[in-house]
Amino acid sequence: MVGLFSCIFVKATQRSRISNVHATEIKRGMGGLHGNKSSAFPSYHNATTSSTSFIGGGDGSMILDHEICILNGDLNYRIDTMSRDIVIKAIQSGNLAKLLERDQLLVSRRKNPTFGLKAFTELPIQFDPTYKYDIGSNIYDSSEKHRTPAWCDRILYRGPGKIKQLQYRRHELRASDHRPVSGDFIIRVKTILPDKRDKVWEECQQRFQSAKSRLVREIKFVILRRTMHMLTRKFSRIQYLRDVLGLSVEEARDLIQTQPS
């Protein structure tokens, strides 16, 4: 397997509300040299204004620059330090909690503070491991490799306050050695109403001009008050020089001007 093919279906009635759709592909095998089984990163972003802005100061080129991110695919995480027989017995007895304690993804989220997916949320898993089955049957891998069952297929999301997952389940389709998983989400989508936006913009401009005029008046008042204070001091000094020292008004002014303020 050298890649994943992802499809996103949209109701015809909602198509006009979707724009700026982009897709890309990344080689994940052998250090980025070759195609390999990978994960899909559909993401959603709705900018607050026409001058697109992204969270965290990004430019939109990275997945985490976007407000709402959904990560799904064959993430290939396995169950650590547990034999295949023990795993299958736990599945048959319904003891999934025992297996989830050793799930590599959940362990990394709990113990590694720098784990890249720590910012994402995953609903509690309440279904059997989705990999690996004999194609067309309900039997876990009976080939020579006898792979240990694991929750390889996952859905995680990020977008605090903007996205909520309602369901997380697997489906019993036998066309693959994986069982597909699905999630139902409610996503709060920001939209712009041009008429209301223009009205708010006009109100903001009026408030700004009002605040600007008030600030100018306050500055002018401060300058006037300081000027009056300086003039009062100056005339008081002229009167002292004239009445006490007997200088003329012109001599007093010349003397004051030659002194540092």
Overview of this structure, please?
The chain is α+β, with helices and mostly antiparallel strands. It contains 5 helices and 6 strands, in the order E-E-E-H-H-H-E-E-E-H-H. The strands form 2 sheets. Strands 1, 2, 3 and 4 form a 4-stranded antiparallel β-sheet that branches. The protein has a two-stranded antiparallel sheet with strand order 5-6. Helix 4 packs across helix 5. The termini are far apart. Residues 40-52 have low confidence and may be disordered.
Give a short account of the largest sheet.
Answer: 4 strands, antiparallel
In percent, how much strand structure appears in the residues?
A: 5-15%
Helical content stands at: 25-40%
- What is the β-strand count? 6
Weakly predicted, low-confidence segments: 40-52
What sequence of helices (H) and strands (E) makes up the elements?
EEEHHHEEEHH
Shape: elongated
Structural class label: alpha+beta
* End-to-end Cα distance: 85 Å
C-alpha Rg (nearest Å): 35 Å
Mean pLDDT: 82
Total of DSSP H or I helical runs spanning 4+ residues: 5
